[in-house]
């Protein structure tokens, strides 16, 4: 009691000096306790409230006790003084019995009171800043008082607890108070500050407040010290009141139970001290690096606490060295979480680490745990090794996927050298998890979609269809078709179920329509044609339509399809035969036309395929058109083909085949003469149709006149056929011998509108031709007259002769063929133009 122990905080608890507070009028056994300590370092002075006495302990050459005043309950040094003297301290002293406060200064070893300020009640706690005084009374109420106000009255803030008060200065004329409901409230001269209050966790009342920038320290009744940032009011750290082995021994010896913290928390000259009456100990709150604190928590295996401190470390102002150390601790803590099977925290912490070394270490761990990934072990160095020893439980693939997705997302757009490795591992995890949609959605196919990966996917994971799709994505068409052939081809393994096999077929056929070059599908067409020739032919047609310059070899196409469905070959050749110059293909098309015309086998087949069926008549019309317009058809072969038909079914076709080699008019007459034959008598309409086709191929007036004659003669029995006369007469508008045409028209039709229209057009054309002939004759006459006039003008001009002997009349040099010369107007001699100009200038 009544004794001050002076020691150095740098040296631990080694006492340096001890001073007994003598001369206070008390004997050794009745000295009062020290209830408050304030430090005035500018004066090398410690202010002490001993009982109800305010004394000073001067810390100069030797310790000296100074007696300032009595009847004191509290004192407060102005944190923002308004004095001009740097060697004086402004002090507020509260009376222990009466409701007032002395405002004065301490200088030259004495306290000088300047003024007395009345208070609402006896002051229990007090803080002084600038011209503002904040205090609490025995009733538990808090007040703030402006010392410069003329009225001098105090502003009541709120009622607090009657047995617990805590006040500390918080800047210029601003204070922090222990409010109700475990709140720290900020006030100023106007009352409650605009600064929001701070909520202290727990249900224990606040017994101490102390500010040491940039932190506010809050001491709770249960011994918890909460440290808040003054910048954003976030809780930086929470510390439990320490209990060491010595304290436990004392408690056991004296049968003491842990006492609550009932003493004060003070900032004494920049040092935060906590006094505990329970074990007569004084504790210093020493700032320890967050790195050291986290390391200590990790060593104690308090991983959650270490993680919480890591999350709050962002509020600290760290140097470069501490940042590097924290990153290492974050990496170490992440792997400790994984080792303890806390995968969610471990993966979340790993994802927050920005560094390739950590990613490689984690990836190495996963690759070693999962041989089914089929990846080579990651090469280690000093940086990318796993930072802790021991075995790890198998990390679920869902967490690995989550980490790799986040890592790739953070590096999106960067050309990181290891991004391909991360993507490859993630792709294999997608494959194992059967998540093919994510395989395309989250990965850059250019990084991992390699032939090696596709082979692994097809063989190890038994997903050939996925491998083929990935090959299609890289435009490796041959590889994709080869993969499908091994599964659904005629000689494939066929290990897939029916649904999967159907899906592969659909993908395969759809890919055919994506190919841009025939060479990329040629190797796969033989087995694809055997499965579905119709789709293959449609793909070939689509390829040539989309790429006009990409032509498939027709001989190869015919060879591929001839043993499957001849109708497809016929359609293929029919659509492009006039562009092909290979006689073999023309002969092949002739055989197909004859085959399908002879026996109408295509109709039912085409109905089954869902296409529009062709009738026998349509095939026959195509055949006839082909016979007349094909430039590369072998006429002899065609004739032999038709002669083999004993039934005479191709009698008309045989006649048309001769038209390219013989006289077309004779063929037309022979064609129309078939109606009178007894062995074969085709219908009139069929004859007329063939005749019109022949006239279209060889459009001459002689052919049209013959066709009109035969048409009118043979169609007399069927009036409906006479409508075709209009078409023939329209083609005969330019016929020179209209009388010959009219002679072939029956008498009953000569006055019809058809003939009248023909005659009007014919007369108009003839009249027009005569008018043009007249105009041409007139133009010739005019041109002849103009020419004669020009010749007459030339004959009237003076003539002269220039030969080898002709000389210039001025220079007497011979005139050359390329010289420019003129006739002299005076003497008529020929002279050089230059000589004439020179003579004129003289």
From TrEMBL:
Superkingdom as given in the UniProt entry: Eukaryota
InterPro entries to which the protein is assigned, alphabetical: Vam6/VPS39/TRAP1, VPS39/TGFA1_Znf
Protein name, as recorded: Vacuolar sorting protein 39/Transforming growth factor beta receptor-associated zinc finger domain-containing protein
Domain Vacuolar sorting protein 39/Transforming growth factor beta receptor-associated zinc finger: 799-838
Lineage of the species this protein comes from: Eukaryota, Metazoa, Ecdysozoa, Nematoda, Chromadorea
């Amino acid at each position: 009691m009544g004794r001050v122990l002076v020691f150095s905080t740098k040296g631990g608890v080694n006492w340096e000096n001890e001073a007994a507070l003598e001369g206070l009028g008390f004997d050794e056994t009745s000295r009062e306790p020290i209830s408050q300590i304030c430090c005035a370092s500018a004066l090398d002075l410690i202010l002490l409230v001993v009982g109800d006495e305010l004394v000073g302990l001067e810390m100069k050459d030797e310790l000296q006790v100074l007696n300032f005043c009595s009847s004191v309950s509290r004192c407060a040094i102005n944190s923002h003084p308004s004095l001009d003297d740097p060697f004086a301290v402004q002090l507020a002293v509260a009376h222990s019995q009466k409701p007032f406060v002395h405002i004065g200064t301490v200088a030259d070893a004495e306290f000088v009171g300047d003024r007395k300020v009345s208070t609402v009640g006896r002051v229990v706690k007090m803080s002084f800043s600038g011209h503002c005084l904040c205090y609490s009374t025995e009733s538990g109420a808090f007040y703030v008082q402006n010392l410069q106000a003329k009225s001098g009255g105090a502003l009541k803030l709120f009622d607090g607890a009657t047995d617990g008060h805590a006040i500390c200065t918080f800047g210029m004329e601003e204070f922090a108070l222990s409010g109700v409901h475990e709140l720290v409230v900020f006030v100023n001269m106007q009352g409650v500050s605009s600064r929001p209050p701070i909520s202290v966790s727990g249900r224990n009342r606040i017994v101490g407040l102390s500010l040491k920038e940039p932190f506010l320290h809050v001491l709770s009744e249960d011994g918890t010290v909460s440290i808040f940032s003054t910048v954003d009011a976030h809780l930086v750290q929470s510390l439990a009141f320490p209990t060491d082995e010595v304290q436990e021994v004392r408690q056991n010896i004296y049968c003491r139970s842990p006492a609550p913290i009932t003493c004060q928390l003070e900032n004494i000259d920049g040092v935060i001290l906590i006094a505990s009456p329970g074990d007569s100990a004084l504790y210093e709150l020493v700032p320890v690096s967050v790195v050291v604190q986290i390391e200590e928590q990790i060593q104690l295996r308090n991983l959650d606490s270490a993680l919480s401190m890591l999350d709050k470390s962002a509020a600290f102002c760290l140097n470069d060295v501490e940042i590097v150390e924290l990153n290492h601790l974050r990496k170490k803590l992440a792997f400790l979480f994984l080792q303890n099977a806390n995968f969610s925290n471990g993966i979340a912490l790993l994802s927050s680490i920005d560094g390739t070394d950590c990613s490689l270490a984690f990836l190495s761990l996963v690759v070693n745990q999962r041989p089914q990934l089929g990846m080579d072990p990651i090469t280690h160095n000093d940086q990318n090794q796993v930072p802790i020893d021991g075995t790890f439980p198998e990390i679920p693939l869902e967490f690995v996927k989550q980490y790799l997705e986040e890592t790739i997302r953070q590096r999106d757009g960067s050309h990181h050298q290891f991004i391909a490795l991360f993507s490859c591992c993630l792709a294999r995890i997608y494959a194992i998890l059967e998540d093919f949609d994510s395989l395309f959605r989250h990965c850059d196919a250019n990084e991992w979609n390699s032939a090696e990966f596709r082979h692994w996917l097809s063989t190890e994971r038994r997903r050939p269809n996925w491998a083929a799709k990935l090959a299609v994505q890289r435009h490796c068409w041959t590889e994709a078709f080869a993969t499908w052939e091994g599964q659904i081809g005629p000689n494939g393994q066929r290990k897939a179920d029916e649904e999967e096999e159907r899906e592969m077929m659909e993908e395969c056929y759809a890919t055919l329509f994506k190919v841009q070059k025939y060479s990329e599908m040629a190797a796969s067409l033989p087995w694809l044609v055997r499965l579905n020739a119709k789709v293959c032919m449609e793909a070939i047609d689509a390829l040539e339509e989309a790429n006009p310059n990409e032509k498939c070899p027709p001989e190869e196409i015919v060879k591929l399809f001839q043993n499957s469905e001849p109708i497809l070959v016929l359609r293929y050749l029919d659509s492009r035969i006039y562009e092909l110059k290979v006689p073999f293909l023309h002969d092949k098309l002739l055989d197909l036309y004859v085959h399908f015309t002879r026996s109408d086998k295509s109709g039912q087949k085409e109905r089954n395929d869902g296409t529009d069926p062709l009738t026998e008549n349509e095939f026959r019309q195509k055949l006839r058109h082909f016979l007349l317009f094909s430039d590369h058809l072998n006429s002899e072969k065609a004739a032999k083909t038709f002669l083999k038909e004993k039934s005479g079914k191709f009698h008309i076709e045989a006649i048309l085949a001769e038209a390219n080699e013989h006289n077309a008019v004779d063929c037309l007459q022979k064609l129309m003469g078939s109606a009178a034959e007894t062995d074969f008598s085709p219908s009139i309409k069929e004859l007329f149709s063939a005749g019109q086709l022949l006239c279209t191929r060889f459009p001459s007036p002689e052919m049209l006149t013959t066709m009109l004659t035969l048409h009118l003669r043979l169609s007399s029995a069927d009036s409906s056929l006479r409508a075709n006369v209009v078409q023939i007469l329209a083609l005969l508008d330019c016929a020179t011998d209209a009388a010959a045409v009219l002679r072939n028209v029956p008498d009953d039709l000569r006055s019809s509108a058809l003939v009248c229209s023909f005659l009007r057009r014919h007369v108009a054309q003839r009249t027009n031709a005569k008018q043009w002939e007249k105009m041409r004759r007139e133009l010739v006459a005019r041109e002849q007259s103009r020419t004669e006039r020009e010749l007459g003008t030339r004959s009237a001009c003076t003539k002269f002769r220039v030969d080898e002997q002709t000389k210039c009349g001025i220079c007497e040099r011979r005139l050359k063929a390329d010289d420019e010369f003129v006739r002299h107007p005076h003497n008529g001699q020929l002279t050089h133009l230059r000589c004439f100009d020179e003579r004129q200038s003289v």
